[in-house]
């Protein structure tokens, strides 16, 4: 196994070579499946396959053989997978099986014209082997060169399959009784949200508001590709509204833009299908990179990891709905022991954490705002550099600053400071930080403010610090938990 100093210890990575988007996230008979965009012959993007891994707990993953390889219709681009419980497709002789719905992508060698269409593959042995459907493709439309990333789900109310896919700078919705024949239902996106690049990897799902199953809203995720003019690179926006099985209606003002993550490295994320009702969670995972520099990050023999698996929920706050994210609770099993502090006054120049040296850990802190103009943590710190996670009460800005985090020189847009607004509640701010060998994920408040950033520190950057500038701040409680390695 490749084990350079940047190799994540508790995030999913391919054993070797290049990975991008998560694909075909599906839970079936006690197993979580994670497929992913994979180039088995290099550490940059290339002819796309679906790599595959299987887990019982979303944390420990067994690598499985490549599930789908390019064929006469082209490369295998992103898509989804569903459990066809009642064999609506007719692929499973009346039983249940898994159907993958993905984009076939090809380019005419002479004209250079791109063709993207949607195809199926199915598995009768819990995802171990796959057969491509002989009737592929099942959905084509030559008007759209960008026509990809189908996400399919069963719509209970209308008893049909729904597909959402990206077509240029809108999404299109289709319905089907059997996954093989698709009828156009509606289009969404013109004049709505952000349009700074091509739309990709949509998802659409229903969530209870404040956990009340009788009061629900629909959430649409739409990733936006890397437009060179756009300093943030690739990002994911979301819309909250209503969906009746045919049409999605955004309930926010059309020009209102909501980002899923204010960091730079959470793209093309989608959610698991097939999660049993008794569990009821909406579990999300994103690709922890950015098309701006994804192909030049300083790893050796492998490239890219996924974000932590996270639950998504809708919470109302002062009559406004917000999408909140939390790492899945299965991750708690990685904690070995916990260092705990209560009631520490942090002043400029003091560092109560100076005796700790850690590279993989979770940190949870409750601050009571004081006079400090800025306060926060330094992680993966040494003379060589550090990553700052800080808060400025004056502007209500939470940030990750990775300007001096380690190796930042591989791309001019990599170093920088990324911010998100978050309100303290009754004068208190809750922050949770997950640090791995090459990433920092920050969740603040109830999870309404999230920052996910790659960092490439030297192995010797193991120090930690709490800091306050121009005044003091009260740390009500702090827990630091070293995390075990899981990557096989
Ligand atoms: C998003 C994306 C998808 C496409 C895939 C190709 O990162 O561009 O739209 O299906 O990657 O690898």
UniProtKB/TrEMBL annotation:
Residues 11-327 form the Glycosyl hydrolase family 32 N-terminal domain. Keywords: Glycosidase, Hydrolase. GO terms for molecular function: hydrolase activity. Signal peptide: none annotated. Residues 331-481 form the Glycosyl hydrolase family 32 C-terminal domain. Pfam families: Glyco_hydro_32C, Glyco_hydro_32N. CDD domains: GH32_Inu-like. It comes from the Bacteria. PANTHER family: EXOINULINASE INUD (AFU_ORTHOLOGUE AFUA_5G00480). Belongs to the glycosyl hydrolase 32 family. This is Glycoside hydrolase family 32 protein. It comes from Paenibacillus aestuarii.
């Amino acid at each position: 196994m490749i084990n350079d100093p940047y190799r994540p210890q508790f995030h999913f990575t391919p054993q070797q070579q290049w990975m991008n988007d998560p694909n075909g996230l599906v839970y079936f008979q006690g197993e979580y499946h994670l497929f992913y965009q994979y180039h088995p012959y290099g550490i940059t993007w290339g002819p796309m396959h679906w790599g595959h891994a299987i887990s019982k707990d979303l944390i420990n993953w067994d690598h499985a053989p490549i599930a789908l390889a390019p064929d006469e219709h082209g490369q295998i681009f992103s898509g989804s997978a569903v459990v066809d419980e009642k064999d609506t497709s007719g692929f499973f002789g009346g039983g249940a099986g898994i159907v993958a719905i993905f984009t076939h992508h090809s380019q005419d060698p002479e004209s250079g014209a791109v063709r993207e269409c949607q195809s199926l593959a199915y598995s009768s042995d819990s995802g171990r082997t796959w057969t491509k459907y002989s009737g592929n493709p099942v959905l084509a439309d030559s008007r759209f060169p960008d026509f990809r990333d189908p996400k399919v789900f069963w719509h209970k109310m209308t008893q049909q399959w729904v597909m959402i896919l990206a077509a240029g700078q809108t999404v299109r919705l289709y319905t089907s009784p059997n996954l093989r024949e698709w009828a156009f239902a509606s289009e969404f996106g013109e004049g709505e949200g952000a349009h700074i690049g091509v739309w990709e990897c949509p998802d659409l799902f229903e969530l209870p508001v404040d956990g009340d199953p009788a009061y629900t809203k629909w959430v649409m995720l739409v990733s936006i590709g890397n437009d060179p003019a756009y300093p943030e690179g690739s990002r994911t926006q979301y819309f909250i509204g209503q969906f009746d099985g045919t049409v999605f209606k955004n309930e926010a003002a059309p020009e209102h833009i909501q980002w899923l993550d204010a960091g730079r490295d959470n793209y093309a994320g989608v959610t698991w299908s097939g999660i049993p009702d008794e569990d009821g969670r909406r579990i999300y995972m994103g690709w922890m990179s950015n098309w701006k520099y994804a192909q030049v990050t300083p790893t050796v023999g492998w490239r890219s990891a996924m974000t932590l698996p996270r639950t998504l929920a809708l919470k109302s706050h002062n009559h406004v709905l917000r999408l909140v994210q939390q790492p899945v609770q299965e991750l708690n099993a990685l904690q070995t022991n916990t260092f705990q502090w209560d009631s520490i006054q942090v002043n400029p120049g003091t560092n109560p954490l100076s005796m700790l040296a850690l590279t993989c850990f979770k940190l949870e802190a409750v601050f009571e705002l004081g006079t400090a103009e800025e306060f926060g943590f330094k992680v993966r710190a040494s003379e060589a550099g550090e990553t700052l996670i800080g808060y400025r009460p004056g502007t209500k800005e939470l940030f990750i600053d990775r300007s001096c985090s380690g190796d930042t020189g591989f791309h001019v847009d990599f170093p920088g400071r990324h911010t998100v607004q978050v309100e303290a509640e009754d004068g208190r701010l809750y922050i949770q930080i997950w640090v791995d060998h090459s990433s920092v994920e920050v969740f603040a408040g109830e999870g309404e403010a999230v920052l996910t950033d790659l960092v490439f520190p030297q192995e010797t950057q193991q120090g930690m610090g709490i800091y306050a500038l121009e005044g003091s701040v009260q740390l009500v409680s702090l827990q630091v938990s070293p995390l075990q390695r899981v990557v096989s």
